[in-house]
Amino acid sequence: MSSNATTIKGIYVHIPFCISKCPYCDFISGIPPDENIVEQYFGALKKEILIQSNLYNLEDCETLYFGGGTPSLFPKKLEEVFQLLQRLCPKIQEVTVEINPQRNFNPSHFEFATRVSLGAQTFSPKYLKILGRTHTVQDSITSIKRAVAKFKSTNIDIMFALPGQSPQEHLDDLKRAVDLGANHISAYMLTPYEETPFGKAVKKGMIKLPNDISKFFEVQKFLEDKNFKRYEVSNFAIPNFECRHNLIYWNREDFLGFGLSAWSKIGDTRFSNTKNIKDYISKLSENKLPISFHESLDVHRKIEEIIFLGLRKIGEGIDISQIQKFLDVKGFLESALKRFGKFLELSADKDGNPKFLRLKQKYIYYIDAITVELMILAEKYMDLKTNG
Questions:
Q1: Whole-angstrom Cα distance, residue 174 to residue 172?
Q2: Which one, 49, 76, 99, 329, has least CB within 10 Å?
Q3: pLDDT tens, position by position, for the chain (388 residues)?
Q4: Spatial contact of 110 and 97, defined as CB atoms under 8 Å apart
């Protein structure tokens, strides 16, 4: 690994500890915050950062994101990590911390942050209970009000298509989030991941999810009436309050992930850390990086990523300039518009050359199916002459 040609744009730091794990969560999280293991973990985390800083130039890094888990359990320790990274990354401008809503949330403990993301999920006591959340609606309201008064940007996470939920109830959640003063809202459809308790309950028929999700997407138009722009399939922001860190992922720029199970992308390679906390701490105690998976992206994977991530950027779409070196673009676009023209639109530059292929807003709920179809189509139009 060489640092020479790489510009690291963002850094993600994973904090895997939680007081209790939500039944729908498939992240590496929920590890009880035992004082001894927490101390060891943060010590290992700092060591990993120092090792990687010798391999990569972090000087142009612009964003830092503390995710989890529940990072907000450890404000002092996060600040120590931030101070270490600030010395290595003098250009950091956006620092996000994921916050679990709680009555005693104190924004002054997070002076180093410019942005917080609060996992409210819903403002309905009934659905909070179904989701296994331990906070109350009042905890969310209190935390959000304090955050909005303190930070440059406040995101609220809202989940929808919950068991028994109506689109109107989702709209009520969105209205409450706007009324509380958020300038960024992430609206995620509940996904029943197979290995989670929630996923297993859905599979057994113990929990039923809504069949028609289109109406949930329709009520989200309310946010656009309130000056929020849907800039990614699940993310809405008042202009200039987009999450710069997440844009790094969607734009396929280079980033480093630190901590348990964290992913990194450098050039045409992606790699991830071990998911075992003992292994993570042990490797770093021997000054070894805890990387457990590494892949070089071939042409097929690159095209898949460009299509998958591009289509998620609702306002822009797939950047044609990124795929034209791999595909017979003319044939691909003609075929895509012939077969899926009802769902897609093509924008052009001032000379009439194709620029972005995007999903029409009203068909956003078809994104997964259209993504798969475009990937299959792209394989057919791959330019094998230029790519061997």
A1: 5
A2: 76
A3: 444 468 899 999 999 999 888 888 888 888 999 999 999 999 999 999 999 999 999 999 999 999 999 999 999 999 999 999 999 999 999 999 999 999 899 999 999 999 999 999 999 999 999 999 999 999 999 999 999 999 999 999 999 999 999 999 999 999 999 999 999 999 999 987 788 887 888 788 888 888 889 999 999 999 999 999 999 999 999 999 999 999 999 999 999 999 999 999 999 999 999 999 999 999 999 999 999 999 999 999 999 999 999 999 998 999 999 999 899 999 999 999 999 999 999 999 999 999 999 999 999 999 999 999 999 999 999 875 444 3
A4: yes
CA distance 69 to 21: 8
CA distance 131 to 55: 42
The C-alpha atoms of residue 106 and residue 89 are separated, in whole angstroms, by: 27
* Statement: the pTM of the whole predicted model exceeds 0.70: yes
Q: How far apart are CA 268 and CA 112, in angstroms?
A: 32
CATH-assigned architecture of domain 10-250: Alpha-Beta Barrel (3.20)
Assigned token pair, 326: 């791999």
Structure tokens at 56: 């990569």
Query: Whose structure tokens read 């990124």?
Result: 322
Q: Can you state the angle between helices 75-88 and 35-55, rounded to 10 degrees?
A: 10
Q: Is 32 helix (H, G, I), strand (E, B) or coil?
A: coil
* 269-273 and 235-237 strand pairing: unpaired
What DSSP letter does each residue of 66-120 carry, written as one string?
A: EEES-GGG-HHHHHHHHHHHHHH-TT--EEEEEE---TT--GGGGTT-SEEEEEE
The DSSP code sequence of 3-26 is STT----EEEEEE-B-SS--TT--
